[in-house]
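Kindly inspect this today.
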Amino acid sequence: MRNFKAACLQVNASNDLSANCDAAARLAVEARAAGADLILMPENVAMMEWGRSNIVLKAMPEDEHLALKFFRDLAREIGAWLHIGSLHVLVADGMVANRSFVIAPTGDIKARYDKIHMFDVDLGLGEVYRESATFTPGDRAVGVALPWGRLGLSVCYDLRFPHLYRSLAKAGCDFLAVPAAFTRTTGKAHWHVLLRARAIETGCYVFAPAQCGEHVNDRQTYGHALIVSPWGEILADALEQPGWVMADIDPRKVEDARKKIPCLDHDRPFAMPGRD
């Protein structure tokens, strides 16, 4: 296994698709010029919209999606692997898939993943989210072969479901992608600790590109795009402003971490507790 450089982008997306794509592309070009082989983008990289009607209106079928075409062309132009954190893809019955794509340097789509877990929460003080009203959840986990190992895919709220990542690791994934638009409220409390926990539990590198700043409808996201080692060390943190971070990735450290603590091999059956 050879080393490579991974970069995570941090953007402040608006509800203007063209401007968002251009902003992400500028950062990707910079990261590639600095040596990045794999460039990962956050959730909703091409569109941060609010309200079901607005989201559905601006979503596009996959085969017509302007942002997908744009990023496939970008991958060819810069000759890098791109992970498109998520795009809003119009599917059946007026619903939308929150869909990730992995794109090879040839521009070919190598994997798709639809976000499984819907962010339906009430954080208090009027901060309410109901993704299930607009988005159709995915129903399968996805891993994809890269030149350096396998990348397991997830999106944002999936982070709170550790069995997904354990399943990806047990299926042979060495790296985990967690593109996100984490709220500022939950990010301050949980973002760093959850990402480090997923790395430690699985012995995987974790790549977590992020949205940051203020968006339409006064929505606020946390930022802090992270790269975390299989031992749980934070290798890079983008803090609070748009930009990108990069780290040298040594796939052999995945094996090293798992040899030290082989918990993926230590599952035991157990009976579930009863409810009184």
In short: The helical segments are 17-33, 52-58, 66-78, 162-170, 184-202, 252-260. The longest helix spans residues 184-202. The chain has one domain: 4-261. The radius of gyration is 18 Å.
